[in-house]
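Q: What changes when magnesium ion is included in the input?
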Amino acid sequence: MEPRMIAANNTSYLARIKPGWKFGALLVLSIALYLITNWTVLLALFIFSAAILLSARVDFKQLRLPLISITIILGVVFILLGLQTDWLNALRSVLRLLTMCLLAYAVSLTTKFEAMLELFQQVASPVRFIGGNPAQIALALSMTIRFIPELKKVYTEVREAQHARGLANNPLAVTVPLVIRSLKIADETAEALDARGYDSEPAKRRF
Amino acid sequence: MSRNPSSSQTKNTVYIAVFAAMIAAMGLLPPITLGIIPVPITLQTLGVMLAGALLGPWRGAMSSLVVVVLAIAGLPLLSGGRGGLGVLLGPTGGYLVGWVFGSLVIGALFKYWVLRRTGNAARFASGLAAVVIGGIGVIYLFGVPWTSVVTGLDLRTSLIGSAAFLPGDVFKAVVTTLVALTVHRSYRGLMS
Amino acid sequence: MVNQPWIKRPRSASKRCCAAKRLEYRAGAFVELPSIRLENVFVRYDNRDVLQQISIDLDEKRIGIIGANGAGKSTLSRLLNGLVLPTEGTVHIGELNTREHAKQIRRQVGFVFQNPANQIIMPIVSDDIAFGLKNLSLPKNERQVRVAQTLGELNISHLADRETHTLSGGEQQMVALASVLAMRPQTVVFDEPTTMLDLRNRLAFQKEIAKLSQRAIVVTHDLEILEDFERVLVVTDGTIAFDGPPADAIAHYRQWSHA
Amino acid sequence: MVNQPWIKRPRSASKRCCAAKRLEYRAGAFVELPSIRLENVFVRYDNRDVLQQISIDLDEKRIGIIGANGAGKSTLSRLLNGLVLPTEGTVHIGELNTREHAKQIRRQVGFVFQNPANQIIMPIVSDDIAFGLKNLSLPKNERQVRVAQTLGELNISHLADRETHTLSGGEQQMVALASVLAMRPQTVVFDEPTTMLDLRNRLAFQKEIAKLSQRAIVVTHDLEILEDFERVLVVTDGTIAFDGPPADAIAHYRQWSHA
Ligand SMILES: Nc1ncnc2c1ncn2[C@@H]1O[C@H](COP(=O)(O)OP(=O)(O)OP(=O)(O)O)[C@@H](O)[C@H]1O
Ligand SMILES: Nc1ncnc2c1ncn2[C@@H]1O[C@H](COP(=O)(O)OP(=O)(O)OP(=O)(O)O)[C@@H](O)[C@H]1O
Ligand SMILES: O=C(O)CCCC[C@@H]1SC[C@@H]2NC(=O)N[C@@H]21
Ligand SMILES: [Mg+2]
Ligand SMILES: [Mg+2]
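A: The predicted holo structure follows.
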């Protein structure tokens, strides 16, 4: 599976709201949820969040796995909490979490990956006051995406090579070459960045 | 030294990206499921531990942070192909925050303690201690209370639940220590 | 030249399978190498045929495989030790089937990859070669003997105590070869083993291959090293477009490439 | 794909430097190429001379560099754009000195590495090519024009929107070349550009090099691609053991290798 942008083609009204607003709203609502103890209000909010998710016409195929996973975990939580405290409390807790997750997915699935990154970069821009460099952060993020398939390939190649020595399932025999090759890739890429005239600000702080 | 040092910042950025990619790639291997409960027992913690032990505190923590940020931004990088804001707000979100501080602590311990020791036994013992403190202690320190706060379960139950991860994490800690010490022998000066 | 009285007989396999061909090692040469047989093999990825209906017997001791990028050479070579399993059809090494006897086949068919960095684990050359031998559960002193012997055979004894990652590309390639030969396989498959080598090292490598008592199957873009091979296959678009002596095969391939 | 208008612009480097020879780019061809001059260059690693006292002028448009593994070819080629600085001596490109004018020299001397995968930094082809242009602080619309133009010149416009990691080795090599050519350097240095290519792709690559209006300096073990070069250097143990037309240089190198 390749990393792919989750919110690729959503065009609903939610997709048109600025990511900053969506994030802010999500944050406020999440905190508010913990202040609410009335289970009927929580239930209403849960239905509201499901409605938002539905109205945003998100691609539900992408939600299948996460929803199954969260449902099972919450099932366990519900039972444990019910046995330990009382069932109403368990219900409140589960409703809260479900609401939060549905809203979070509504934001994720209606915000383009690039827009999300841009927001993060804005949020992170004060790092320049402590000696960080937002441009470097942006570069690190794109390079990571570029290198994920590369490292998967390295992993497969190393597994294959060790398979021939009967060592494919030896964690040391697979991990050491994987790490060494990653370091070499990094060295060469840094050199290539240099050769292409990439110019980072002189480091203001030592890493 | 006549090689024109790639600006050290450029090099750091690339190291961070490559190790972040390694952590992410490790999540693409299928997660183990315990019975019916899909707990994310993931190889990614191996990557988090390695990033700290090999790159040092600052770059190690940045590698973990990059993965967490990309996952929250929506890339399906976490085990089982999950991503998006939900993973942070969900019951295991605290562990993700723990990754960043875990690799930071491992890196600091390696840089200022483990790699200054001599003798194989001493190095291994201190290395393992460092990885266990940072890669298990610190990560659980964030993960366990988070689960408890988010779900409303009490701390004890949350702690007992985290025991499902323990055997795997101890194994990963041993592998990390062996690998890191071997690689540091080949690639000297990684952290200087 | 390579002395290997300890070659594993395909023991346990013979239990499950029929009368495994016995191999006798006599005076430095195999009396007989088990033949490699592909029957009606297809390999498909995502519904695309990467290899199509390949049926072939490989009996010679020196076999080359050439062809265009993406033609399927690496896939074909990986079939031979079970790294890739056929989507359809079967691959037999002697009486062993890659699908069923993966483990024994892996011991019989060694594999040397293009990038030696994939294979090298330990920081010191001799430790690295010994690493794989632990898996054969050889006792420690025998391991040491075997390591020294293998390094000697390849004329790289001087590298024994060197740090693996400071070696040049060519030296690393030789160490990777040693680590595979130390396991005493009967067949060694090479996937583009000379890409980083200079002319001299290529000649040296060519000589090493010529001296091997093992069967060697070499995938390469470097046509010169195949000159004294017995047989060369040209792979084109997932089929074997030509199969014959090196000079003819290379002529066929050159013609195709210029077309 | 990831949009980064916040990339730092290279500030006014030209202030520090002298009268750089003006080059006019006209109808796809440079009117004049500045000559490359190495004066009394030594490169030392750990007190070992990797290159010794090299003094040489490079004026030709097609220059090959051959030699044994570890002879110092890559080090020599990296001197030319300041990736390696001489321990002693100087390297000048026209009037520019690699030690003092690193930044301008990077613009004039492009570098294509052996492994194109490590040179490609962005997830999408056209973004990768635009990346270097941002470092030149070209405005966005000019960048787009330049990207399209470069892809067109190399006949790979169809790759513009592909994800870089899905490209074949040959395609990656072309993209790496495009990303360097997009910066309109006057000289392109290649360090073993054809190691992973089959015969057909190698021929295609050879043709691309022949067509370049830029100066090309090619380090390679693949002697065939140097046939129509003007000048070939043979590097042996850190010195230039031969310097002359390709046929003679190759003969010299072959003789040395067989010795
Ligand atoms: N695991 C895989 N999944 C999908 N496609 C694959 C896989 N492995 C190989 N292929 C495809 O199969 C075809 C043949 O690949 P193979 O590696 O065998 O070619 P090759 O002849 O070795 O080429 P080269 O000379 O470039 O090494 C290619 O098109 C390749 O993309
Ligand atoms: N950064 C470095 N530190 C120490 N030694 C180095 C470094 N870079 C190169 N060397 C050494 O310098 C010598 C020349 O290396 P170089 O890479 O220039 O050789 P080359 O001619 O390109 O060889 P090849 O054909 O294998 O690529 C080698 O012995 C190498 O080990
Ligand atoms: O994928 C997620 O949602 C977060 C993963 C958290 C996994 C934690 S990290 C420590 C512990 N060890 C594991 O293998 N998994 C958990
Ligand atoms: Mg191949
Ligand atoms: Mg070189």
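Observations recorded in class: Residues 12 and 55 of chain A are 8 Å apart (CA to CA).
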